Amino acid sequence: MKNILRCALFGAALFATDAKAQRALSFNSGHSHNDYHQNIPLLTAYQSGMGSIEADVFLKNGALYVAHDTTEIKPGITLKKLYLEPLAGFYRQNGNRAYADSAMTLQLVVDIKKDYAKVLAQLIKDLEAFPGVFNSSKNAKAIKIVISGDVPLPADFKNYPDYISFDGRPYINYTDEQLKRVAMISDDIKNYTPWNGKGNPTTRDLKKLTTVIEKAHQQHKPFRFWATQDSPNTWIVLERLGADWINTDQPGKLKEFYFHKDKLTYTNPVAYPVYTPSYKSDGLQKPVKNVILLIGDGMGLAQIHAGYIANHGQLNLSNIRNIGFSQTAAADAGNTDSAAGGSAMAIGEKTNNRYIGVGPDQKKRTNLVDTLAGYGIKSAVISVGDITDATPAVFYAHQTDRSMSGEIAADLLDSKVEILVGSNQKSFLKNKDTALMSKLAAKGFKLSSNAADFYKEKTGRQLVLLPDSATRPVKDGRGALLKESLMHSLNILSANKPGFFVMAEGAQIDYGGHANDLPYVVTELHDFDKTVAAALQFADQNGETLVVITADHETGGLTLLDASAEKGMISGSFSTNDHTNIMVPVFAYGPGSAEFRGTYQNNELFHKIIKVIGLKNKAKK
């Protein structure tokens, strides 16, 4: 029993008695419907912090058996053995309260299938073996006993001990005295709507649902619908309607949904303005001088739409007209990591997961940066994460494992990159090649250890190694590092007559996806989108610049649920903490942007950029 007690998980507060008070539900507002049908009755619901647990009972041979009908009755499966005794153990273990967390409460709903008078007599007898544990009239922290199903007439409530409460119905007119014995008001949702849990009930049915809930709240009683669908969307709608108990057959999932609710909902009260492109050079079939490739790491359509809703129905991305889709599978797996996904774009060939700038044969491939350098085009690689991490690394390094950060850093010696911006100073400054920094200086790199110093530089090769704190999440105060680093790099590289290539990575959209943290995802998406605006403005002013925006993969399997563009509110859920095989969008703006329409493999991005930048024509010249 002690081991069972220790395994219980706990959480937040339950119903405030003033039903008119606006509040957010917690997992302690869950009602474990037909709990005895769980693979592990009681413990599954208890460990999930349910505030209400329901058991159906029949009286047979002087004992209360837990079952949905008489055919399910099995020897030893009694209310006393399955619920009363374990709950009494929890109660004592927790210092005379239902849960260790004193803010949490618990009610045991005993659903009497028939013969309430005999069943109640036996129940009262059984409860006598546990003095105080189930006597909520004397101890507010005691486990409340609520009788449902076949219950006495309201006029007879007074004939039972005051620690026995009853499950009320909205169509019964209780006196004030009778109402004192009512623990909650419940009804079958099908009496009000045929709603199947998808979308919302009709306006007419919503009125019926809110009316019955409001009536219960006017009586200062919590309300529960039974026979509801059991899904996150249903839980969201029921909460919005004002229901106080959430009926569920999935207490674990309900607990997870509410336990992580702060990471699954985001509201942006004030929208930021977006840039409206001029479209003057958009789609023109002419050689491209400059290319800005913006990679939103982990950014799928769901992440983009979440950002769109949270910015009140607008994004800079959504103003781009030419759109395609990139298929992200790696050479050795259907699901890619950032190494294989980024390498495909950087070297024009599918490769294996974890490989950095090498083919499936582990041999070095010439990347886009070095290819373009052969034609005098200078490049910058920028990230608001670790600059030796997979996505930026594939544009300057060649290694067989993305974890080889020291070797990746040393590969900069042989790269044609002109500007490198990101964090992870350690891999460079404390490299096993102790002469690495002097060698990089000999290659012409000017070291800056903060963004402010970098912004003072006007010419030459730049190595910007930021402290890790400088690339903290934007929600924690990073600021506009990505946008400002891009703009300054464009200022430096614009002096190069043959043109330039810039890859700038919104690295932490991916971090938020791995953490299953929607606010993290959306705030990083918004930071990335503001960088998109800067790129579009530059392209309009320059007239010879192509902007391509895509992702290396989607992260988190994000699903969007509730949304309000008017409020800037979005909620969702994640199916994984890993990458998925979902296609990612490709947005293109400027001359040659039509080339990026359609659906294609991610390695085609390399070849499309080469094509539109007109290297064949340059070679002839």
Annotation keywords:
alpha/beta, ten-stranded mixed beta sheet, elongated, disordered N terminus, Alkaline Phosphatase, subunit A, nine-stranded mixed beta sheet, 20% strand, 2 domains, single chain, 22 helices, 621 residues
Can you tell me about this structure?
The active site is at 338 (phosphoserine intermediate). By secondary structure, this protein is of the alpha/beta class. Helix 19 (508-514) runs antiparallel to helix 20 (518-542). The longest helix is centred in the C-terminal third of the chain and has 25 residues, at 518-542. The N and C termini lie far apart (84 Å).
Q: In the CATH scheme, what's the topology name of the largest domain?
A: Alkaline Phosphatase, subunit A
Q: For the record, what is the CATH homologous superfamily label of the largest domain?
A: Alkaline Phosphatase, subunit A
Task: Name the shape in a single word.
Answer: elongated
Our measurement of the CA-to-CA distance between the termini, rounded to an integer number of angstroms, reads 84 Å
- DSSP summary, beta strand count: 24
Average pLDDT for all residues: 94
Strand order of the main beta sheet, please?
Answer: 15-16-14-13-17-11-18-23-12-24
Return the CATH architecture of the largest domain. Answer: 3-Layer(aba) Sandwich
Poorly predicted residue ranges: 1-23
Structural Rg: 31 Å
Question: CATH first level of the largest domain: which class?
Answer: Alpha Beta
